[in-house]
Specification:
There is one protein chain. Helix content is 56%, strand content 8%. The protein is α/β, with parallel strands linked by helices. The strands form two sheets. The protein has a five-stranded mixed sheet, sandwiched between helices. The longest helix has 44 residues. It starts with 18 loop residues before the first helix and ends in a 5-residue tail after the last helix.
Length: 658
């Protein structure tokens, strides 16, 4: 005898009927019948079960409601249920909003290179503002968690990027620098170009080198970092380094090891290696060797800046002369420092001469016509070199753009060489001014300096000569001669030059966009484009990482872990991707301490009084907000930008006698 099959209520597909609401005061919530009076759920959606519940519990009270009164009562009960449900929904929305706000603020803290403990200060400020602006919303702000550990967790979660795509061509840029704790940090970037010729620059990792920094150590760290993000070694195109001996050594340098590994993976195909163009441009600048000028300038600047009284008195003199900016220090390792110091020294030469004579340290060179012309020449030529350096520093540039900038500057050097040989200083305004007011001397020595600089550029940028043919095909495919090109792309170039539609697109679109339009009909030409689009020409991105590292990891913030330092950089990379159109960096706004006007030293006592009032209000708690963040994670006072007013604000409220 066969057993009967057990019924399944779910298989009966019962549907809640609207008449049940008016008849028995029930409604449907998430597929369940719920009583509007007592919120009881009926197990099975059957009219019999619903009627039995109503008759046994609520009929005596609600049968009196008939017609319009009953409909109004049903609507009233429904409104009450919805209000009750909205309380929980609203609570969840507030909680979700608080978590989202916590993530956003933590990301902003990382982008601005602030200590993680700043989250508590930000929350305190928000609570003060909420009490005044919207007291009813105070609890919503209180729900935002911004403790130090929470900020660390938020940044860690939001800082990771995507792994490299297997089919992407990849180029690598590496550079190494030492942080405040004497740990060598290896910065690694990759630049990917996928099958659609979309360019992506990714920060890989800041690898701490806790022991030696030999070529083998650097290469091991590089291989490990690239393997962790899934780089396909057979599709590597180029490597850019800072040109240090451990990087470019011919026998056992990182470049040699990298080339061998890539060629073993791709079957011996060519791989290009670049000594950072920015570093080479800076080395070319040193070939000028006008030590007779720089020695006097540096000694004079150091005399004024290294002594506090001299610096204060010189700034007072400048304010009397209505000068806004002071005299900066010269820093050898900063690319633009020499040009900035020389320009300011030349502009303030009369004030400097007067001040040094008052101090009994006259600069005799100010009375030398030849030396003053040398100074003017150095100001002009370093300004031209600084302009070139700034052009090379931009993000997301194609290697052909670096080539164009270098080629343009070499042509300028050739022009200046010819003009100076004829006594014409048209493109050297400071030198031209000095020659107009003083006795004109032979300009052959200036022409010789330009000749030496031109020779240095030719020697250091020979790699561009090797790639020049590829650059011409990439930048001007409609004007090259097909017979001068490799056989693999000759027919494609002819087809391209005869396509009038593509010729119009080439004039209207950028190079990367134009080559995307060629897919998939020109495989060899687009492969060449992908290789050039992928190349790193400089290690500028690595230098930016070191700037972020030096701002975040200071003497008072030295316990920042290597992991957290990586998270901060990845958060800043995400910020740059969101703001690529504006090209605005919150650190770049205040990164130059020389930009601070000397008028910023004006002191007031208002901030001091405000902090004294704060201590009077908090005498019973004996709590000082500075003591909370006085550990290694605390942000130091910005000594380059702090005014007397802000220093008074800190010191007057902090009981230094305790």
């Amino acid at each position: 005898m066969s057993l009967s099959k057990k019924r399944k209520v779910d298989a009966e597909c019962r549907v809640f009927q609207e008449k049940l609401s008016s008849s028995y005061l029930f409604t449907e919530v998430n597929g369940k019948a719920v009583c509007l009076v007592c919120s009881h759920q009926v197990a099975v959606l059957k009219e019999y079960n619903i009627r039995r519940h109503y008759v046994s519990l609520h009929a005596d009270k609600y049968d009196n409601f008939q017609g319009q009164r009953r409909r109004e009562k049903v609507n009233e009960l429904l409104a009450g249920l919805k209000k009750q449900q909205s309380v929980f929904t609203h609570s969840r929305d507030i909680s979700d909003a608080a978590v989202k706000a916590s993530y956003l603020i933590a990301n902003e803290i990382a982008v601005a290179s602030k200590p993680f403990s700043e989250g508590e200060f930000v929350k305190k400020c928000m609570m003060k503002a909420a009490e005044i602006v919207c007291p009813e919303k105070r609890q919503a702000f209180a729900n935002i968690n911004l403790t130090r550990n929470t900020v660390v967790g938020r940044i860690s979660v939001s800082g990771f990027g995507q792994p490299a795509e297997a089919k992407s061509k990849v180029s690598v840029a590496i550079d190494e620098s030492t942080d405040i704790t004497d740990v060598a940090q290896l910065a690694i970037f990759i630049r990917r170009v996928d099958d659609t010729l979309t360019i992506t620059e990714e920060f890989v990792e800041l690898v701490p080198m806790t022991d030696t920094t030999t070529a083998a150590d650097i290469f091991t760290a590089l291989v490990g970092a690239l393997d962790r993000v899934g780089v396909d070694w057979s599709r590597a195109v180029s490597l850019a380094t800072d040109g240090a001996p451990s990087m470019i050594g011919k026998k056992a340098g990182v470049v040699t090891k990298f080339t061998e590994k890539v060629q073993s993976a791709n079957g011996g195909c060519d791989i290009w290696t670049f000594h950072c163009i920015l570093h080479q441009e800076a080395l070319c600048c040193k070939s000028l060797k006008m030590d007779n000028v720089m020695k006097v300038v540096i000694q004079t600047v150091n005399f004024i800046r290294s002594r506090s009284l001299n610096h204060l008195q010189f700034d007072s003199l400048l304010r009397e002369k209505d000068h806004i900016y002071g005299l900066p220090y010269h820093t050898e390792v900063r690319w633009l420092s020499r040009g900035a110091v020389l320009r300011r020294f030349f502009d303030l030469r009369e004030e400097i001469e007067l001040f040094m004579e008052e101090k009994g340290k006259p600069v005799l060179e100010f009375h030398s016509v030849e030396w003053m012309q040398d100074l003017a020449f150095m100001v002009d030529v370093t300004e031209h070199l600084n302009n070139l350096n700034k052009q090379l520093q931009e993000r997301n540039k194609v290697v052909t753009q670096y080539y164009d900038s270098i080629r343009s500057f070499k042509l300028k050097l050739s022009l200046w060489e010819t003009q100076l040989a004829g006594g014409d200083a048209a493109h050297f305004p400071c030198l031209k001014t000095m020659c107009a007011t003083q006795q004109v001397t032979d300009m052959k020595r200036f022409k010789d300096k330009i000749t030496g600089l031109s020779r240095e550029f030719e020697q250091r940028f020979q790699i561009f000569g090797e790639l020049e043919k590829d650059f011409k095909v990439f930048c001007s495919p409609f004007t090259v001669n097909p017979s001068d090109l490799p056989v693999s792309i000759q027919l494609e170039i002819i087809d391209l030059q005869c396509d009038s539609d593509l010729k119009g697109k080439f004039a209207a679109a950028g190079l990367d966009t134009f080559y995307q339009n060629l897919l998939p009909g020109y495989p060899n030409l687009t492969a060449l484009a992908a290789k050039l689009l992928c190349m790193f020409g400089t290690t500028y991105l690595c230098e930016q990482v070191f700037s972020v590292m030096s701002i975040n990891k200071t003497k008072l913030h030295s316990r920042l872990t290597h992991e957290h330092l990586n998270h901060i950089k990845k958060a800043r990379q995400g910020y740059h991707k969101r703001t690529e159109t504006t090209k605005e960096d919150p650190l770049e706004k205040s990164s130059d301490s020389d930009a601070a006007p000397i008028d910023s030293v004006q002191a007031t006592h208002e901030s001091k009084k405000a902090r004294q009032r704060y201590h009077k209000r908090n005498e019973t708690t004996k709590e000082d907000p500075l003591e909370k963040s006085s550990d290694s994670d605390a942000a130091p006072i910005d000594s380059g930008q702090a005014t007397h007013e802000s220093v008074n604000c800190y010191l007057a409220t902090h009981d230094v006698t305790r």
